[in-house]
Design brief:
Elements lengths: L7 H6 L5 H4 L10 H4 L3 H8 L1 H4 L24 E2 L5 H4 L30 H18 L10 H26 L22 H18 L14 H16 L18 H21 L13 H9 L12 E5 L14 H7 L3 H4 L11 E2 L1 H6 L13 H5 L7 H6 E2 L35 E2 L9 H4 L12 E2 L25 E5 H16 L13 H12 L10 H15 L6 H7 L3 H4 L7 E9 L10 E8 L18 H6 L10
Parallel strand pairs: 5-8
Antiparallel strand pairs: 1-3, 2-7, 4-6, 8-9
Helix pairs in contact: 4-8, 7-8, 8-9, 8-10, 9-10, 10-11, 10-19, 11-19, 19-20, 19-21, 20-21
Length: about 650
């Protein structure tokens, strides 16, 4: 049994013939290398580990983040337990650090799971995909039909593309990984440019498109389809067009220019994806809100994020809650909802597992437009007096703000505290109470901040409810079935995201209203307005210049795709650290002061005053070098042709 190096590059390029370890992929099943290629089903079980290793960003502990959502390293969210070293950009040789870690890890006895570090998981799955691609024909004729072999190969090519993409969008251009290397080969390979890596990915996606089915049978829903590969092609090309990716491997400078060649390709690929979906998978298209009541529109909109079906309405590529493509219980999200999004009064969990860990920031709240499409502005007295009135409908779908009612249950016993004074009405319904009462009302914190060993446990003043339905709550000493009412998955690509990819690419090539050959049915302005119409926002009629509309598109992505594994990669590929993390305390929250009540329990009719505050424990110290992650020194010492990323 050969030594398994605990290094990501060596892991990829060396022969891991420790089959008992490497092929111990599926719970309660172990395969030898020969067993893997015995039948279609054993080969699929082997390949299914690429589904299981997908980053479960909607799950607690995903990617080594602990009880934090990945958005908490951006300007959209923060946490009560930040990783100071990460937030200050101290990433070098931190093998087990959240998100940037590269160490070989095992979770729950498995080699790679959704809880594993993403760079290691990518290395692990790249080898699986290459192994299957090279050995598919060893499956005997009686063990798989040609169609089944095509399906396996299509998934393998897609996963080689996806996990290589996961690699390069963190590390920059890297050596090619198009084969299984043996220990006797030259492993000291130079890095390719980011664009060359992207060409390799697109070639694999073209193979995936030719081999994957249009649609799986119901028992296999959630597996990769042709539409998955079409959509990823546009996303990969858009990244290759982005400002960060125009830097060379050995040099890194601030820039804001796109590659017009790659943006053109991104527009063509994303347009082709939408054309394909409309023709072949119309159920995956965005819904048309024309003629719907506001209530029905909002109901359809929330069904995108949590739903009764196994797969969401817009889902093109996702990780189900149990990490496999089919079967299992995709409703098992009680722990994730409790630990990632809910306050202690709702979750009923004790200690550090019971307070909200992924809170929206004021920075994010301010990005929501007013309902008429104008910008929110604290300098506008009307906005400042009632900051939660007449906002983008997505604000109410995504945000719980001070005094908002959410949920259907009172919290008796240990879930409630005695009212701190008689001037504030006591209530049996859950209202969000991160506020402090004025001295005229007796002072004291509302229950969501008072009821915790962690003082001021919701310092930003907000909770995130995009994936949180009203029935998901806990009563004293038990967790009722409300947590299992709906399903939700980690969506890597959904149809609305393709529209926004297309808008960004078109705008860079042709401005807001111009067209591009190969995508001539679309303009950037039309794409954005379709997304806004679905959400209940008015169309943009005056997009301004390309640069002005670029900012509108970026804000639309920030809102629509929030907490969906995009914002961190977007602010890096756009090179926006200086813009979004200004000042000593760039992360903001709100201090809400209760100054009057109407005598009822309805806090939304009470009167508050608001003050924007600094969140002082959520610093950000990202520098130029942090746009790319460092390659471990141990790799640099062994592989002399591998260049370190600039600044590390």
């Amino acid at each position: 049994m050969k030594h398994i190096y605990k290094m990501l590059i060596v892991l990829l390029f060396t022969s891991l013939t420790a089959c008992e370890d490497y092929l111990d992929m599926v719970p309660s099943q172990e395969f030898s290398e020969e067993d893997v290629y015995e039948t279609y089903y054993t080969a699929q079980s082997y390949l299914d580990n690429c589904y299981r290793a997908l980053y479960d960003f909607s799950g607690a502990s995903a990617g080594g983040m602990g009880v934090k959502q990945i958005e908490t390293i951006t300007d959209n969210a923060c946490t009560q337990s930040p990783n100071a070293a990460f937030n200050l950009g101290d990433w070098y040789n931190k093998g087990s650090m959240q998100e940037v870690g590269w160490a070989l890890t095992k979770q729950n006895g498995d080699n790679a799971t959704g809880s594993g570090l993403p760079i290691y998981n990518a290395s692990f799955c790249l080898r699986i995909a290459n192994n299957l691609i090279e050995n598919i024909e060893t499956i005997p004729a009686i063990g798989a039909t040609q169609e089944q072999k095509d399906w396996l190969m299509g998934q393998a090519y897609f996963f080689r593309a996806w996990y290589y993409f996961e690699w390069i969008r963190r590390l920059g251009g890297m050596p090619a990984v198009d084969k299984v290397y043996s220990g006797g080969e030259n492993l000291d390979l130079p890095r390719q440019s980011y664009q060359k890596c992207s060409e390799d990915i697109i070639a694999d996606l073209d193979m995936a498109i030719s081999l994957l089915p249009h649609k799986w049978v119901d028992a296999d829903q959630g597996r990769l389809e042709k539409c998955s590969a079409h959509a990823l092609k546009g996303m990969v090309a858009l990244y290759a067009a982005s400002p960060l990716m125009q830097n060379s491997v050995d040099k890194l400078v601030e820039r804001d220019d796109y590659s017009i060649e790659w943006a053109t390709r991104a527009a063509q690929y994303s347009a082709a994806a939408l054309d394909y979906i409309a023709a072949n998978r119309p159920a995956r298209m965005m819904f048309d809100p024309t003629g719907l009541s506001e209530e029905d529109r909002d109901s359809l909109y929330t069904e995108i994020f949590y739903h009764l079906n196994y797969i969401g309405k817009e889902s093109l590529f996702c990780r189900s809650s149990n990490g496999t493509s089919a079967g299992g219980n995709a409703r098992d999200r009680e722990a994730d909802l409790s630990m990632l999004y809910q306050s202690l009064r709702v979750s009923g969990r004790a200690g550090s597992w019971g307070f909200t860990c992924s809170m929206p920031t004021q920075n994010f709240i301010d990005a929501f437009e007013m309902a008429d499409g104008t910008k929110f502005d604290w300098n506008n007295p009307a906005h400042a007096a009632e900051p939660y009135k007449n906002r983008d409908p997505r604000f109410y779908n995504f945000i719980i703000y001070p005094g908002r009612q959410w949920g259907k249950v009172g919290h008796p016993g240990t879930h409630d505290l005695p009212a701190f004074n008689k001037k504030v009405p006591r209530h049996g319904t859950y209202y969000f109470e991160p506020w402090r009462a004025s001295e005229a009302l007796g002072g004291g914190w509302g229950m969501d901040n008072a009821y915790s060993a962690y003082n001021k446990s919701i310092p930003t003043g907000y909770m995130f409810k995009k994936f949180w339905w009203k029935e998901a709550y806990a009563t004293v000493g038990q967790n009722p079935d409300g947590f299992g009412t709906y399903r939700y998955n980690a969506e890597f690509i959904r149809t609305t995201g393709v529209w926004l990819d297309l808008a960004e690419a078109l705008n860079e090539v042709a401005g807001p209203t111009g067209t591009v050959g190969g995508a001539s049915s679309y303009t950037a302005l039309d794409c954005v307005n379709k997304v806004r119409l679905k959400a209940g926002m008015p169309a943009i009629t005056d997009p301004g210049s390309k640069e002005e509309f670029r900012n509108r598109i970026r804000n639309e992505r920030r809102i629509e795709l929030s907490f969906e594994y995009h914002r961190w990669f977007d602010i890096r590929r756009w090179m926006l650290f200086d813009e979004v993390f200004q000042g000593n305390y760039p992360i903001k929250g709100v201090h809400a002061t209760l100054i009057a009540t109407d005598g009822t329990e309805n806090q939304e009719n009470w009167t508050f005053e608001y003050e924007v505050i600094d969140i002082q424990n959520s610093l950000r110290g990202y520098e130029l070098r942090n746009y790319w992650y460092p390659i471990p020194q141990s790799h640099m010492d062994r592989l002399y042709n591998i260049q370190q990323n600039p600044g590390w």
